[in-house]
Write a structure and sequence with these properties.
alpha/beta, 8-stranded mixed beta sheet, globular
């Protein structure tokens, strides 16, 4: 079984557990990170429909939110885009307007779902260098009614409870439930 298939199997087992849908959980604990090796990005993308299928089999709703083109969409609508193309160093990153743009895309999907819906964020890999995933979660946390599933390209250390985005940044500790290919999920 491939690592992506193992991740999907562990996710299917987790999404089907009734206790993970406890409505009294605070928003920070309604976030799930499906952690995978960044080198597996294309394989993961091909398997996204099987994650949706597992969610629907568990009698839960599914909404996808792809952030792959978020920076291009934001920049295309930016008044100063030509100046930034000429001098990219003048564009401060992280940029608060870009962070809010991305957060609003995710919030729109969260608002379309209910307490039984998984909103799956894919394309987080495209945020690298522009925005931290932890910042995105902080910005949308209060809008989570169901569950937020973030396909997270990086690693999770169960001993320190640290996530590392693309294994390139210092890790951070977050309340999200890690779902991995190796260890399944942690309650």
């Amino acid at each position: 079984m491939s690592r992506i298939e193992a991740l999907r199997e562990n996710y299917a087992g987790y999404v089907a557990r009734p206790q993970v849908w406890d409505p009294s959980l605070p928003p920070a604990q309604r976030v799930w990170f499906a952690v995978y090796d960044p080198a597996e990005e294309r394989r993961l993308r091909l398997r996204i429909p099987s994650f949706e299928e597992a969610t629907r089999k568990a009698d839960r709703g599914w909404r996808g939110c792809d952030l792959t083109d978020a920076f291009a969409e934001w920049m295309a609508a930016h008044d100063y885009r030509e100046a930034y193309f000429e001098s990219p160093e003048d564009l401060p990153m992280p940029h608060p307007d870009f962070e809010e743009f991305v957060a609003s895309k995710v919030r729109r999907e969260l608002e379309q779902g209910d307490e039984n819906t998984v909103v799956a964020v894919m394309g987080a890999i495209a945020l690298f260098g522009f925005m931290r995933v932890s910042r995105l979660v902080d910005l949308v946390e209060e809008a989570i009614r169901g569950r937020l599933l973030v396909f997270f390209p990086g690693s999770y250390d169960p001993e320190t409870h640290q996530y590392r985005f693309l294994d390139a940044r210092d890790g951070w500790n977050y309340h999200a439930v890690p779902i991995t290919a190796e260890g399944g999920f942690l309650p």
